[in-house]
Design brief:
The complex is a heterotrimer.
Chain A lengths: L1 H17 L1 H22 L3 H24 L4 H6 L1 H6 L5 H16 L1 H13 L7 H25 L6 H28 L5 H30 L1
Chain B lengths: L10 H33 L13 H28 L2 H33 L7 H22 L3 H33 L14 H33 L4 H10 L1
Chain C lengths: L10 E10 L2 E11 L3 E6 L6 H9 L6 E6 L2 E2 H4 L1 H4 L2 E4 L11 H12 L5 H10 L15 H9 L1 H4 L5 E5 L7 H16 L3 E5 L10 E6 L4
Parallel strand pairs in C: 3-8, 3-9, 6-7, 7-8
Antiparallel strand pairs in C: 1-2, 1-4, 4-5
Helix pairs in contact in C: 4-5
Classes of the chains: A mainly alpha, B mainly alpha, C alpha/beta.
Chain lengths: ~220, ~250, ~220
């Protein structure tokens, strides 16, 4: 069973590596959206410093959502998803493996590049760690919840926009707590509570979301 | 006498029952809302701080309660449909969504009306109002998902999964929004500070709540009847009903 | 645990009904498939062959009736049933960006079939793809892609139940012979195969049955 899961992760990573343009678009989108905000609200340093965590989080959220369409759609189109559903490994575990690989490709790059972008907003250097950690804990939760939405909208017309409508309300708690971590750290309160909450959300989502997504996949494929 | 619970689990037998129940609950709703509104707008005393403007809570609060209650009921019926593979449960869940969304919208709209004379703005990012807004998005998501799926069975089951995931999230959303609200507000702008309840005010709100609840039952049952007719249109009883009613 | 053919339970379809929208594709359909038996599903396009095969796999839930393996509903057995199933559908289930051998390797691992590189190459060679193992699936022809998908049959001897949807599509005569040989071999060793086809196949089997879906 571990062999099968490792096989799925390696396969998805290999596919992403051979189609690296898909990966780059997500990262570029993130960078561009973050750069749009100062253009929209003005470059005043104090304002930017205040909004930095929120802006980075919203941009990461949107970029993550953009990438969701790719979790299951390609496998559904060429029939590989059916094979996974008829495989010897429980579908929930296969979904967890796929979402993990998806996060490695679409979420982790955002986490790694976020400190650089935060510096653009003159965010205090000593707090970059909290910001990056909040994204590191939060983006997997976004991928996990998003996978449920992607599974529900599999193969539907207008799946992309419908997916956003379904998934964004569910993202709100993660956004509030995630952005709140860095904001609390910036105001001197320390972001520990929020980071712990994010960790709890990650564990909860990790335990239940793959199973819910598996149920949704079976419903969508019937 | 043992009750045969499953007698009404098929659309054919439930259809006429739903019609009678809808009529009954509709009349009750009219009565209760009439009483509640009279109590709220004429009998309850003027509030010392907020004047007459506070009276909107007689609509706002019951509507907010109904919006959340209906979401839970919708998720419940969806869950039953998933677990027992019954067609009627899915139809009930689909019938509830528009009424739930309506009450959410009413809660938001009346909340806005309350905010204007009290705080001077048409919208406040109050914890409850923001949660209601997100709840409205959840309802819209449910309806949009069901509308995009042609196969009724897939639509029912996908909607059920979404509603169940949503129902788990609603408390999380509410608490995180509440936290966000207290964290960010200096002077707490909050619509939750309702005037301290005189007995008549509480009674009025409770009666309005019942009124809204009866209305919801009537509206949902009527909508469910329409859904039943559409889904079961190839069945004999549906054809007979349509011909008889024509 | 290795199951001998006599221990492997039969696949039973009991009173199965399938409707798509307003149309009933088939109703009150039953069959039993024991070891060493071959079942062929025939019928015109749109008559529900693919739906029947998917119901037999447990991918699709029938509107009435059920499919059982060893007396239990296959949809409840889930992985316990699927580990004994090899399904090759209409779609080839190949990733364009992976090579033929990578594709076959992934497919086997997911299905629970243990196969090292040597056996993978051997299977591809058996289907006439020797020398093409390291080409990305993108550059293979339709027939070659179908053969990569079917190469799993060469490695699936230990899997009791094969369900094949139009296995002979896009294949040339040599490949058709090869696949018929694989199916015949599996059946003669006690395995069971359900397949759908337009093609008038000639597969030698001890017990060979046929269900023709009428279509409307």
């Amino acid at each position: 069973m571990i062999a099968a899961l490792r096989c799925v992760i390696v396969r998805d990573l290999r596919l992403a590596a051979r189609r690296s343009s898909d990966v780059m678009t997500v990262v570029l989108f993130f960078v561009i959206v973050v750069s749009l905000f100062p253009l929209g609200i003005g470059p005043e340093p104090k304002l930017l410093r205040t909004v930095a965590p929120g802006v980075l989080w919203v941009a990461a959220l949107l970029a993550s959502m953009l990438a969701l369409g790719r979790v299951f759609a390609a496998d559904h189109a060429d029939g590989t998803l059916e094979q996974m559903m008829l495989g010897a490994t429980p579908l929930g575990l296969v979904v967890a493996a796929k979402v993990f690989a998806h996060w490695l490709v679409s979420g982790l790059p955002l986490v790694l590049i976020s400190p650089v972008l935060a510096l653009q907003f003159d965010f205090p250097q000593e707090l970059l760690g909290v910001l990056a950690l909040s994204l590191a804990l939060g983006t997997p939760v976004l991928s996990l919840i998003g996978a449920i939405g992607a599974a529900l909208t599999l193969g539907l017309r207008g799946a992309g926009t419908l997916l956003s409508l379904l998934v964004l309300p569910l993202y709100v708690p993660v956004l509030i707590i995630g952005a709140g971590a860095a904001e609390a750290a910036a105001s001197g309160l320390g972001g520990h509570a929020q980071l712990l909450l994010l960790g709890a959300m990650l564990i909860f989502a990790g335990a239940f979301a793959p199973w819910a997504a598996a149920v949704a996949l079976r419903i969508s494929v019937e | 006498m043992s009750i045969n619970w499953f007698k009404y689990s098929s659309p054919q037998t439930f259809f006429p029952l739903a019609g009678k129940l809808a009529l009954g609950f509709g009349l009750l709703a009219l009565l209760a809302c009439g009483m509640g509104l009279y109590l709220g707008f004429f009998v309850a005393p003027t509030d010392a701080q907020q004047g007459e403007a506070y009276r909107i809570i007689f609509i706002h609060v019951p509507a907010a309660w109904m919006s959340m209650f209906l979401y839970v009921v919708m998720a419940f019926w969806g869950g039953i449909g998933l677990a027992f593979n019954t067609r009627l449960s899915g139809m009930m869940a689909s019938a509830i969504a528009p009424t739930g969304a309506l009450f959410t919208f009413i809660a938001l709209w009346t909340g806005s009306f309350w905010g204007k004379p009290t705080w001077g703005t048409w919208w406040v990012w109050d914890a409850r109002l923001t949660s209601e807004l997100i709840l409205l998005f959840l309802y819209f998501g449910f309806m949009a998902l069901q509308a995009s799926i042609d196969d009724p069975r897939r639509a029912d089951r996908a909607g059920a999964v979404l509603a169940l995931v949503g129902v788990v999230n609603v408390p999380i959303i509410y608490f995180s929004v509440k936290w966000w609200n207290t964290l960010h507000q200096g002077a707490s702008v909050s619509l939750t500070k309702a005037p301290s309840m005189a007995a008549t005010m509480l009674t009025g709100m409770l009666i309005m709540s019942f009124g809204f609840w009866f209305y919801s039952i009537a509206a949902v049952l009527l909508r469910a009847r329409c859904i039943m007719l559409v889904r079961e249109r190839s069945a004999d009883w549906a054809g007979q009903y349509a011909r008889g009613a024509a | 645990m290795v199951e001998t053919p006599s221990v492997v339970p039969p696949l039973e379809a009991v009173d199965v009904r399938c409707a798509r929208g307003e149309r009933t594709l088939f109703d009150q359909l039953s069959f039993t498939l024991k070891g060493g038996e071959l079942l062929r599903i025939g019928g015109p396009n749109g008559s529900g062959k693919t739906s029947l095969l998917r119901i037999a796999c447990g991918l699709l839930e029938p509107d009435r009736g059920e499919v059982r393996w060893g007396g239990e509903n296959v949809r409840k057995l889930k992985e316990d049933f699927w580990v004994r199933l090899l399904y090759i559908g209409h779609a080839n289930a190949l990733k364009d960006d992976l090579t033929a051998s990578e594709n076959l390797s992934v497919a086997c691992t997911l299905a629970g079939i243990v196969a090292d590189e040597r056996r993978i190459s051997g299977a591809l060679g058996q289907l006439g793809l020797a020398g093409r193992e390291n080409l990305p699936a993108r550059v293979l022809s339709q027939g070659q892609r179908r053969r990569v998908a079917l190469a799993r049959l060469a490695l699936g001897a230990d899997v009791p139940l094969w369900v094949l949807d139009e296995p002979f599509t896009a294949l040339d005569a040599a490949a058709v012979d090869c696949v018929q040989g694989l199916i015949g071999g599996h059946v003669s060793r006690g395995g069971r195969v359900i397949y759908s086809t337009h093609y008038e196949a000639s597969i030698a089997a001890a017990v060979s049955r046929r269900i023709d879906l009428a279509g409307s």
